[in-house]
Amino acid sequence: MNIEQRQRRLRLPIPDSRLPIAVLAAALSIALLSASGIAFGHSPRELLSILISGSVGSTFALQGTLLKSIPLLLTGLSVAIAFRAGVWNIGGEGQFLAGALGAFLAARYGMIAALAASLIAGAIWASIASAMRLWRNAPEVLTTILLNFIAIHLLGYAVNGPLQEASGKYPQSDAVPMTSMLPMLGDLHAGIILAVIAAIAAWFLLYRTSEGLRLRASGFNRSAAKWAGVNVDAQLVRAMAISGAMAGLAGGIELLGVTHRLFERFAAGYGYAGIAVALLAQLHPLGTLASAFFFGALTTGAGELQRTAGISSTVATFGQAIVILVMIVFTRSARSAGVSPAGVAASRRHGRAEER
Amino acid sequence: MRLSHVTKSFGANKAVDDVSLDFKPGEIVGLVGENGAGKTTLMSIAAGELTQDTGTVDYTKAGIVHQHFLLVNEFTIAENLALAMWGRDAMEIIRDSGIDLRGVGRRVADLSVGEKSKLELIKAIAGHPRFLILDEPTSVLAPAEARELFDVMRRLAADGTTVVFISHKIPEVLEVASRIVVMRRGRIVVDGGAMSAEELAEAMVEKRSREVATTARSIRGEPILELDALKVHPGEIVAIIGVAGNGQSELAAKLRDTLRGRVAHIPEDRARDGLIAEMTIAENIALAEPRWSPRAATRRAAELIERFDIRAQSPLQRAGSLSGGNQQKVILARELERKPEIIVAAEPTRGLDIEATRFVHDELRSAAARGAAILLITSDLDEAFALGDTIHVIYRGVLSARLTPEEAASQAPRLMAGVGSRESGVGA
Questions:
Q1: Which of B253, B275, B287 sits opposite A229 (nearest CB)?
Q2: What sign for the dihedral angle of Cα B378, B381, B382, B384?
Q3: Whose CB has fewer CB within 10 Å in chain A, the N or C terminal residue?
Q4: What does the domain layout of chain A look like in residue ranges?
Q5: With an 8 Å Cβ cutoff, is A166 touching chain B?
Q6: pLDDT, tens digit (0-9, with 9 covering 90-100), for B166-201
Q7: What value, to the nearest 5°, has the Cα angle with vertex B272 and ends A355 and A142?
Q8: Inter-residue contact B342 to B232 (CB < 8 Å)
Q9: Does residue B382 form part of some domain?
């Protein structure tokens, strides 16, 4: 259909719901990871079994996987919501840090206050990008990524300066008060419940509310949404804020449930990993549950590879990259959209010029 | 070019059903039929863009001008021509085509719809095809531009090119075609030479169920839409006519942005602005409503599908999978069902068949009878005279004085060409 082709040109890679591609992407990344073992003198089968036993092979491994899945689930939801609305929020990393910082500052008022602060801080950090978009039409794909660097250095300054621990020994903060820490459920923290609730809430928002309807409409076709009476600018601002809040919550939960302190490398790539999580889930909030678990398992499995086979755990990022590539290559809409920042910026401008 | 026993299905739908056709050099073939009759599919197969399921096609060098533009918006006219015809001078290509298009340094994004369609035609002709297919080329052209196009077609035919002209407009087909092929539901029902307008209309349209609603209505009270010289009263249909690209789109966009929420819109560019192709019919209809729940929206959409006679399998069908006429009905259903006090309809019947056009006109008339103020922006003069109580001519973003249909009938050609008195600026 000509009509669809026309609209695809202006669109984000919003995948059609096609499960086989997701399964293929996941399987391919595992297969390539295992095969890469040959370079280190291990058989692929050996690596595969380490990956599996290290991630889901025991209660301990499974707990580790779930622990990693929690922030991934939330940053994945953050990306899914933004991309659904046609907003390129690549700033999950910065919003994650903003959320953690917010939670840390509010921690003395208790857990609820800290969690709320992480939501708000993430939303505010993301909203800087939408403000620049509305004010000067600055493409958010660039501004959000640049805001990541600012957030990283802001945190670096904080833990070396005003927020450094009282002993002044390491570049890290003191631990948050006990009262603000998340309650434990066995070896897991209560953040897992919050994250699952967030996934269901995001699904409800997108597919069961009029807000979600208009948000998706803006993502598919800004121009048509505008003619149908949707205020697409307001939609963009709200989608960005909700997306930022999700990433911020991820940071807050990580602080209050796992690390209890801030330090320089706090974000550890969760923000960027959210992109892989969301794409593998085909931008569906409930799909994000499965895809976050997959990447959580990949991360813990890679940790086990490092311990037992001496292969750096950064291979997990290798797996993520493969998933992203497969999803992008096999998603029809992406083929014509051009997913490089420059291509995106061009198609954005194009979209603007086309709108009346 | 020869097609024999060609069949093509999309899912369960047989778009082209066992069609055989021979084309001779120098023919101008008018290919007519309702929306979804299979004309475009058949010609895409002839041009080699689609592959038939069964049957054979003997190809010649074919050029096709689509209903939807395939131009690079960021590029200028000259750059777009260079993409199609590398190494030749743009001005020269345009001169050779015999089509009037100026300013080769202008970006395509800034061109009017009429100008874009001229550019597409120039591109297609530049390759000197032996077989040229024009898909609804006049739907975006003003009468003078259409005549210009017919001259080009006749010249190409005289040089031995076969020209296939897909259209809904019966008078045009009768004027220009030397052979007329009528399709209905994927099959050829008539293939012949001279015929009367009535015969042709009868062959095209299967049923004539809807009667033209003759509704008495009163134009009353103060204008509820006022923008400089433009005044639309409740119950009134004001038609704005003009050559495409004279500020019509800007006027519609301005009304959208200033009267946000109070106005129902039927946007000009249906493919881009009409519906969200990826979403369901029910979701598209619900976009205009303040509150939404999937179940209520589906129920409501089912009602509207029934009432507006939309040919869809289910309210949960993707809007993009509907034919053009049915998409327009979905837009009408969405926009008219909220009983707006103002309706801005831009080219509401462009590219629609007779049945669908009559339907749209009836709906607009009954909305006016209900007391809505209607602004009709159209390049189809017949439509303006059939519906308009008052007519304005728009030229270079400026509206003429209010004209009665009688006044407009005598003055419109002059005003559309920019000769004669003008009044008060609007839009652009």
A1: B287
A2: positive
A3: N
A4: 17-354
A5: no
A6: 887 777 888 899 999 998 888 888 888 777 777 777
A7: 50
A8: yes
A9: yes
Distance, CA of B280 to CA of B321 (rounded, Å): 9
A158, pLDDT greater than 60: yes
Same domain, B30 and B132: yes
Q: What is the ipTM of this complex?
A: 0.79
B56 and B147 in a single domain? The answer is: yes
Structure-block tokens of residue B62 = 């074919």
In angstroms, the first-to-last Cα distance of chain A is 23
Contact B24/A at CB under 8 A: no
Q: Distance between CA A299 and CA A320 in Å, rounded?
A: 10
Query: Is some CB atom of chain A closer than 8 A to the CB atom of B424?
Result: no
Min Cα–Cα distance to chain A from B266, Å = 8
Rg value, chain B, Cα: 22
Kindly state whether residues B163 and B256 are assigned to the same domain: no
Domain count, chain B: 3
Which of B159, B183, B204 is a domain's end point? B204
Task: Look at A3 and B265 and tell me if their CB atoms are within 8 Å.
Answer: no
Instruction: Give the angle A196-A280-A52 at the CA atoms, nearest 5°.
Output: 80
Distance from CA of A24 to the nearest CA of B (A): 24
Closest among A102, A100, A103, A94 to A143, alpha carbons compared: A94
Identify whether residues B7 and B86 lie together within a single domain: yes
Q: Do residue A229 and residue B292 have CB atoms under 8 angstroms apart?
A: no
Contacts of A6 in chain B (CB under 8 A): 68, 271-272
**Averaged pLDDT score across all residues of chain B:** 83
B401 shares a domain with B302:
no
Mind listing the pLDDT tens digit for each residue in A30-56?
888 888 778 778 888 888 898 899 999
Does the beta-carbon distance from B249 to A210 stay under 8 Å? no
What CATH number has the domain bearing residue B250?
Answer: 3.40.50.300
Which two three-digit tokens encode residue B226?
């006022």
Taking contacts as CB-CB distances below 8 angstroms, the residues of chain B near A208 are 293-294
Does A217 contact B293 at a Cβ distance shorter than 8 Å?
A: no
* Partner-chain contact A221 B276, CB within 8 Å: yes
Q: Are residues B302 and B402 in the same domain?
A: no
- Structural domain including B422 reads 208-262+340-428
Inter-chain CB proximity A1 and B253 less than 8 Å: no
Task: Please tell me if residue B295 touches chain A, with a CB cutoff of 8 Å.
Answer: no
Q: Determine, yes or no, domain membership for B270.
A: no
- The answer on B284 and B244 residing in a single domain is no
Nearest Cα neighbor of A216 from B269, B313, B292 is B292
In a 3-state reduction of DSSP, which class is residue A313? coil
Using a CB-CB cut-off of 8 Å, the residues of chain B touching A14 are 278
Q: Is residue B351 part of a domain?
A: yes
Q: Which of B10, B120, B276 to mutate to test the interface with A (most CBs of A within 10 A)?
A: B276
Regarding whether B42 and B133 lie in a shared domain, the answer is yes
Q: Give contacts of A223 with chain B, Cβ < 8 Å.
A: 272-273
Whether residue B325 lies inside any domain: the answer is: yes
C-alpha A160: how far from its chain's center? 27
Q: Is B288 on the interface with A (CB under 8 A)?
A: yes
Contact A213 B253 (CB under 8 A): no
- The total of other beta-carbon atoms located within 10 Å of residue B193's CB is 8
pLDDT, residue A236, reads 93
Question: A17-354 has which CATH code?
Answer: 1.10.3470
CA distance A334 to A332: 5
